[in-house]
Each structure stands twice: as C-alpha cells, then as structure tokens.
Amino acid sequence: MKCNLVFYLARKTSYCEKALKKALTEIDTELHRVCASTTPVMLGEKLTEALKTCNLVFIIGGLGFSGENRLSDVLSRALAATKVKIGDVRRLSNTIGKNSGYLIRSGNQLIVALPDNPEELTAMLSPQLKSYIADMYNLNYSE
User: Fold this and answer.
1) Would you say the pTM of this structure is higher than 0.90?
2) Structural domains of the chain ordered from first start
C-alpha cells in the first residue's frame, strides 16, 4: 500500500522520513509522495492533495509550536468544517517527549500526526498503532 507524507514546519526531516520508512516496512506500506508546507493554508492544500491519491497520510511536525501555527490548532479549525466527529480523533501519547500525536479517521481515510523528532516518532509508531493501521487496510504486519 502507498501513503503520503506532509512535513509541516518540521525539523530533522530526513531523519524523520527515514524512521517513518523503516516503520512502514513492517506494515507492508511505502511512501508515495513527500511534500512540505510552512503555513496553515499550505498545509490544507498539501493535505487535500495527499488525501486525493492515498487514504493514509502522515503529517510530521508543527506539534511544538504555539498559537495559530500549532498543528493541533490548525487541524481543529479544519475539522470543525467537516463531518469528522470527536470520536474519530484519538490522541497518541508520547512517552519520551512532550508533544502528543493525533490519529484522525474519516471513513477509509486516516491521518497520523507525529512530532518531528525521530526518536519520539519511532516510539509513537508503536506495535499497537502499526497493528491498527494494518487491520484498517488489511495489510500484513510483521514485528
């Protein structure tokens, strides 16, 4: 299966991409397209494009910012105009860092928002999360 990656105000992008690729091999998934955005409007455009070609999209970065650029605030504003319900959004705990991630599901589409720290990203891509993604898309999962 293919998925897309959108970096949002991210640092350590090559390390994060490498960590994500490694985790994706365990669920028989590979990156289709990688892009970057630096503003909430650009993120919306890139996310819309990404969801048109793949049902699984990862957003890396933007969780440590404050104010209107903080990813959780941007996603909250965007989701307010959609049919996504509060039960479709889950917080992903971060056991080694301070910024939580998010899992947003709408029908057969899934957005996974993760911090831009490779160690935190790797820890948050837990066996439970990989199993959830694998089950959702009927993928093979090999730990």
Assistant:
1) yes
2) 2-136 (3.40.980.10)
